[in-house]
């Protein structure tokens, strides 16, 4: 039997936070004799409810974007956009009215506006009035009405709906709204569950990340064809790549069992043009949108990064879809795909890239340490700018934005900062899957949609060793706009290095990241001349070294308008210019051997100020050994 379909929706006046609507499906015309026949079947007094009927509960999932009859004992999910009850209404006499109510868990009922039937109305027969947003619907004494409401991210639990004909309840029913992404008709999850250990790609080279076989920590470095290098594989390091493949495929083609990108393809797309990684083995969050665009699937953008509480994680999933969740595996960072919670909220539902299992967070003692939030194609972002900092190191950063807000961790005072808007600092990286275990920790600081202006960066050593720093920025289009790498920089517990950079997000503007030392040495006009030489280490004119330390690692920046040929340096009166390698706009770390007591380093270089005038920057630095 063919139906005429009229689709419209309108808000009703109620206290509900989620708007209520109706969808009308008009059945074929029924003539007066058919209606009279229905009336004759009703025993006096009129049993009005017998002329109306409830059909089923329906849901409108975000994945398939079509109405589906609820299955599994009337079950809906928190990423369903709408849910409702489908009814058949038969008009028996003038003035007959129907309405429905909905009761969310722990709430009072809210009511839809009533619908009224008239046998004759303004010259038309068999008319239904009061359908929100639509005029009189005439020509049939029977219609099918779906009473529905918005439930995306609504309160989960048992919902109740009641349906009334002239005040008589003709159906009362319940459905359960679960805090998780829907399952498909075959019972499988809508979220794919790839395994990084799958034989199809387990041995596939991961990123262009290697480690030296002589390095017991297996610190990640860019591969350079060194004979002592060994490259990581997807099996060993590919958990985030695998989790992101799950997420992109979820958003790619809902309703179709199509793989848009497998982990090895995701890895190779990130390798294109060197823009997929913001440090060895670490996925650049900007690149995910680029990869999804290259696959001709909906764009997936990073919305936030950092540790969320349970409420925040649940909200991110119901609003945006499945997300990467960081857990600790063997004490190190590992990423899984999370897509909801069980009905009682005792654990999280995850797909684990370690082996492709569809399981729960109980596998990791129900603990997670970090999150990233990616939004699907429903959300468009005009500003996709990012400042990212990766540290493969025994150091901790504190970043101060142009307004004086801070983010990061000061290990000398054990103070965490989270004052920079849209910023996060967390342990990250990818835990090995296999017999070889890297003991390296990777720390990530991200600022989304950063303010333009000058930033200060302080790095404080937490142990003796060396660190690698990878510093990247993007413009408002999400395109890379700046990149700086510091490799094998010495540090020790309590040592401080100070940096400065100026950021601009306008596409096509000058390089947005201009890293310099946070200490200018003093002595000349700070506005221009003092920038010819600047220092990340030291951070003051006089430095007292810890007892027993007789070497100082000087980190020196040469300004963009300096003349390297004019550089000179003396240490305790002796010419040490040969120790330095000045180049315009570069930096270097120079170890200074010191004698007991007071040591004086004098540095000088010429350069040009904005007016074109030549000037000289001369600095005197004092180091005291104990």
What low-confidence regions span 5 or more consecutive residues with pLDDT below 50? 1-17, 30-50
Q: How much is the radius of gyration in Å?
A: 33 Å
Beta-strand content bin: 35-45%
User: Tell me, what is the CATH class of one domain?
Assistant: Mainly Beta
> What would you call the shape?
elongated
| CATH architecture call of one domain | Sandwich
Number of helical elements: 6
Profile the largest sheet. Answer: 8 strands, mixed
Give the CATH superfamily of one domain: Macroglobulin (MG2) domain
Question: Helix/strand-derived class?
Answer: mainly beta
- The fold-level CATH name of one domain is Immunoglobulin-like
Mean pLDDT: 85
Describe this structure in words.
The structure is a single chain. By secondary structure, this protein is mostly beta strands. The protein is elongated and about 110 Å long.
Summarize the structure.
With 626 residues, this protein is mainly β. Among the domains are: 4-178, Macroglobulin (MG2) domain (Immunoglobulin-like), CATH 2.60.40.1930; 205-375, Cysteine proteinases (Cathepsin B, Chain A); 540-626, Sandwich (Immunoglobulin-like), CATH 2.60.40. The protein is elongated, with a radius of gyration of 33 Å.
């Amino acid at each position: 039997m063919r139906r005429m379909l009229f689709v419209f929706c309108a808000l009703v006046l109620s206290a509900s936070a989620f708007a209520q609507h109706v969808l009308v499906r008009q059945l074929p015309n029924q003539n007066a004799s058919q209606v009279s026949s229905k009336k004759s079947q009703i025993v006096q007094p009129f049993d009005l409810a017998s002329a109306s009927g409830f059909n089923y509960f329906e849901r409108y999932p975000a994945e398939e974007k079509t109405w589906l009859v609820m299955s599994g004992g009337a079950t809906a999910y928190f990423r369903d956009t709408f849910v409702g009850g489908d009814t058949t209404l038969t008009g028996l006499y003038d003035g007959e009215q129907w309405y429905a109510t909905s009761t969310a868990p722990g709430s009072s009922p809210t009511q839809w506006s009533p619908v009224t039937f008239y046998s004759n109305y303004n010259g038309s027969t068999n008319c239904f009035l009061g359908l929100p947003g639509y005029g009189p619907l005439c020509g049939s004494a029977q219609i099918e009405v779906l009473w529905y409401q918005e439930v995306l991210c609504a309160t989960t639990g048992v919902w109740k709906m009641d349906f009334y004909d002239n005040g008589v309840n003709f159906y009362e029913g319940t459905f359960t709204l679960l805090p998780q992404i829907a399952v498909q008709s075959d019972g499988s999850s809508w979220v794919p569950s790839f395994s990084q250990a799958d034989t199809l790609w387990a041995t596939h080279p991961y990123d262009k990340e290697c480690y030296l076989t002589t390095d017991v920590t297996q610190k990640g470095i860019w591969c350079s064809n060194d004979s002592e290098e060994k490259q990581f594989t997807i099996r060993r390091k590919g958990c985030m790549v695998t989790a992101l493949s799950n997420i992109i495929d979820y958003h790619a083609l809902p309703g179709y069992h199509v793989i848009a990108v497998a982990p090895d393809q995701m890895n190779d797309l990130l390798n294109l043009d060197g823009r997929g990684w913001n440090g060895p083995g670490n996925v650049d969050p900007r690149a995910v949108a680029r990869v999804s665009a290259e696959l001709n699937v909906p764009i997936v953008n990073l919305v936030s990064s950092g540790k969320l509480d349970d409420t925040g994680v649940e909200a991110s999933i119901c609003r945006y879809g499945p997300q990467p969740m960081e857990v600790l595996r063997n004490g190190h960072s590992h990423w899984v795909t999370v897509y909801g919670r069980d009905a009682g909220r005792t654990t999280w539902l995850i797909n684990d890239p370690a082996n492709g299992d569809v399981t729960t967070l109980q596998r990791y003692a129900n603990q997670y340490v970090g999150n990233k939030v990616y939004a699907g194609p429903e959300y468009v972002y005009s500003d996709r700018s990012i400042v990212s900092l990766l540290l493969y190191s025994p150091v901790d950063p504190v970043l101060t934005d142009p307004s004086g807000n801070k983010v990061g961790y000061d290990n000398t005072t054990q103070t965490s900062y989270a004052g920079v808007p849209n910023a996060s600092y967390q342990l990250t990286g990818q835990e090995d899957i296999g017999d070889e275990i890297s003991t390296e920790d990777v720390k990530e600081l991200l600022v989304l949609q950063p303010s333009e202006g000058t930033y200060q960066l302080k790095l404080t050593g937490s142990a003796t060793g060396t660190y690698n720093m990878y510093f990247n920025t993007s413009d408002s289009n999400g395109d890379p706009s700046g990149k700086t790498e510091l490799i094998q920089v010495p540090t020790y517990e309590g040592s401080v290095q100070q940096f400065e950079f100026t950021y601009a997000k306008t596409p096509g503007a000058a390089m947005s990241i201009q890293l310099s030392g946070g200490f200018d040495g003093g002595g000349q006009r700070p506005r221009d001349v003092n920038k010819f030489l600047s220092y990340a280490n030291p951070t003051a004119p006089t430095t007292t070294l810890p007892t027993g330390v007789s070497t100082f690692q000087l980190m020196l920046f040469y300004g963009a308008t300096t003349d390297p040929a004019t550089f000179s340096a003396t240490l305790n009166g002796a010419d040490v210019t040969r120790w330095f390698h000045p180049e315009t706009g570069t930096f270097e770390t120079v170890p200074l051997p010191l004698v007991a007591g007071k040591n004086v380093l004098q540095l000088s270089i010429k350069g040009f100020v904005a007016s074109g005038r030549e000037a000289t920057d001369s600095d005197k630095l004092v180091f005291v050994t104990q």
